[in-house]
Amino acid sequence: MRIGLVSDTHIPEAENALPQEVLQAFRGVDLILHAGDIYDPHVLDELEKVAPVLVALGDDDYVRVGKRVKGRHILELEGQTLWLMHISPRLYVTRPWLKPMVLEPAGDKSPDIIISGHEHKALVESSEGILYINPGSPTLLNYKKGLGTVSILELNGGEPHVDILQL
Predict the structure, then answer these.
(1) Are 81 and 108 in contact (CB under 8 A)?
(2) Closest CA to 9 of 82, 61, 50, 48
(3) In whole angstroms, what is the distance from residue 138 CA to residue 134 CA?
């Protein structure tokens, strides 16, 4: 299974519209996961022309963006448990004030993979048996306007594989 990962599109603040390079990068994916800070729900409509979309509500997403958006999605795909959320739990260590912005894991199955955004920088990191992925931002990478990054996550029943794509 190929999954397109994107976060922090910030449309129309960063760009007027979703860059076409994002849609090109996601050609052939089975699913798109957006880790929040969408701003304009039309971005999701554009992405859905490529594949089904699930979205984590971002800390700057004040507009109601529909049923496909939750505070956190928990998915079982190809034998892996994925959590899709906007702010990664790994930030709690250095920024404890962020903890209330993320749902507590009580009762949920522990994740194998956590996909998040918020930081505007691409990251693939393993820690204590969890793979953390931040696809960066296609429009505001490192808080600089211009083409940034998205990611492709490959799940085929074995070890997950992640590619960060510079647009």
Answers:
(1) no
(2) 61
(3) 12
**pTM recorded for the entire structure:** 0.89
Q: What is the extent of the structural domain holding 107?
A: 2-166
Rounded to whole angstroms, the Cα distance separating 27 from 2 reads 10
Name the phi and psi angles at 155, rounded to 5: -120, 120
Cα separation, 153 vs 150, in Å, equals 10
Q: Which two tokens stand for residue 52?
A: 């089904």
Alpha-carbon separation of residue 46 from 26, 38, 52, 84 (angstroms): 11, 12, 11, 20
Q: Which CATH number fits the domain that encloses residue 88?
A: 3.60.21.10
In this prediction, residues 71-88 reach a mean pLDDT of 90
- The count of domains in the chain is 1
Highest mean pLDDT among 69-78, 93-102, 135-144: 135-144
